[in-house]
C-alpha cells in the first residue's frame, strides 16, 4: 500500500555502505537505467477547509527500487543531498510536475501543484530559475500553477544566494510556502520580509490538537499571525475529524492529510479531483 516503506524508513539507519549503494542506484534511476528502478511523483490533495473542494496538490517523490521495493523519501532524499544528487533529482521533479500539469490540462483538469525544494537547489539560483523557466515554457504552464514548499529552516538560511533564489522565484510568479512551520525559530519580523504567500503548520502540532491545550494555543496564534500578514494557512497531517473540527474553528484555510486522501498516482488523483471539484 501507500505506506509500504514505513518499516524500512523507520528502522533503517542507512549505514555508509548502504548509502553508497542507494546513491549509485538513484543515479541509475535518474539516468533511466533499468538497475535504478523507477521514480514517480505521487500527489496529495490540499482541500478548502469549509467546502472540502480540492485547491491543489503536493507532489511527493516516490522511488521503486528493483530489489528493495519502495524506498521512502525520508531515506533517499538525505542520501541524494549527501551524494550530490539532489539538484538533478530536483530538476527531474520540476520537469515531471510540469509535464503532469500539462497532461491534466489536456484532459480538462486545471490543477495547482506544490513541489518540495531542498536548500541545495536554492543555493544555485540561476540554475534553478532556468529550470523552472524551461519546464514552464516547454509545457505552456502558467507560473501561478506552481508552489514551492521550503522548510522553515531553509527559509531562514541567511546565505545570500538562498534569499536571492526566493526573490527570483517569487518574481517569476511562483507561489512560495513555508513548510513544517512552527519547528524552527523564525521571527515575525523576518517572515514579513520573505515573498511567501502560505504557511504550512507542521504535523506535530496538528497531531496534538485534541489532547494538548498548548498545541491549540500555538496553532491559534500561528493562524492569527499568518492572517494578519495576509498569508494562507494549510494544516498538514490531518488524520481525524476531531483535528479537522478544531482547525475549522480556528479558520485554517486549507487542510491536508490522510483524513482526506493519501498521496496517490496521477491517474488516481485525477479521478479524486473530479469527485471533489467546487
Ligand atoms: P513533507 O514535505 O513534510 O511532506 C509531508 C509528509 O507527510 C509526506 O511524507 C506525506 O506522505 C506525509 N503525510 C501526509 N499526510 C499525512 C497524515 O495525515 N499523516 C501522516 N502520518 N503523514 C502524512 P513522505 O511522502 O514520506 O515525504 C517525507 C518528506 O520527504 C517530505 O516531508 C519532504 O520533506 C521530503 N520529500 C518528498 N518529496 C520530495 C521532493 O520531491 N523533493 C524534496 N527535496 N523533498 C521531498
Ligand atoms: Ca512539503
Ligand atoms: Ca511538511
Ligand atoms: Ca512536516
Automatic annotation (TrEMBL):
It comes from the Bacteria. Residues 19-277 form the EAL domain. This is EAL domain-containing protein. The chain holds residues 423 to 700 of 721 of the full protein.
Amino acid at each position: 500500500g501507500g505506506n509500504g516503506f514505513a518499516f524500512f524508513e523507520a528502522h533503517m539507519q542507512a549505514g555508509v555502505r548502504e548509502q553508497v549503494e542507494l546513491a549509485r542506484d538513484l543515479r541509475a534511476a535518474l539516468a533511466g537505467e533499468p538497475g535504478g528502478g523507477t521514480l514517480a511523483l505521487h500527489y496529495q490533495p490540499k482541500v478548502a477547509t469549509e467546502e472540502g473542494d480540492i485547491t491543489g496538490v503536493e507532489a511527493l517523490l516516490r522511488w521503486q527500487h528493483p530489489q528493495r521495493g519502495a524506498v521512502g523519501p525520508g531515506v533517499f532524499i538525505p542520501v541524494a543531498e549527501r551524494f550530490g544528487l539532489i539538484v538533478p533529482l530536483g530538476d527531474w521533479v520540476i520537469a515531471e510536475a510540469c509535464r503532469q500539469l500539462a497532461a491534466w490540462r489536456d484532459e480538462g483538469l486545471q490543477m495547482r501543484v506544490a513541489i518540495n525544494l531542498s536548500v541545495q537547489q536554492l543555493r544555485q539560483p540561476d540554475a534553478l530559475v532556468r529550470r523552472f523557466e524551461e519546464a514552464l515554457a516547454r509545457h505552456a504552464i502558467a507560473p501561478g500553477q506552481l508552489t514551492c514548499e521550503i522548510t522553515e529552516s531553509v527559509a531562514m538560511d541567511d546565505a545570500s544566494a538562498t534569499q536571492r533564489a526566493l526573490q527570483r522565484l517569487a518574481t517569476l510568479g511562483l507561489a512560495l510556502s513555508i513548510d513544517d512551520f512552527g519547528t524552527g525559530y523564525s521571527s515575525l519580523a523576518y517572515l514579513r520580509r520573505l515573498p511567501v504567500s502560505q504557511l504550512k503548520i507542521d504535523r506535530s502540532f496538528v497531531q496534538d490538537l485534541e489532547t494538548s491545550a498548548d498545541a491549540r494555543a500555538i496553532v491559534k496564534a500561528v493562524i492569527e499571525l499568518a492572517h494578519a500578514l495576509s498569508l494562507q494557512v494549510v494544516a498538514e497531517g490531518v488524520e481525524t475529524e476531531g483535528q479537522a473540527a478544531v482547525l475549522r474553528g480556528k479558520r485554517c484555510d486549507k487542510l491536508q492529510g490522510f483524513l482526506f486522501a493519501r498521496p496517490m498516482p496521477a491517474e488516481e488523483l485525477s479521478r479524486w479531483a473530479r469527485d471533489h471539484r467546487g
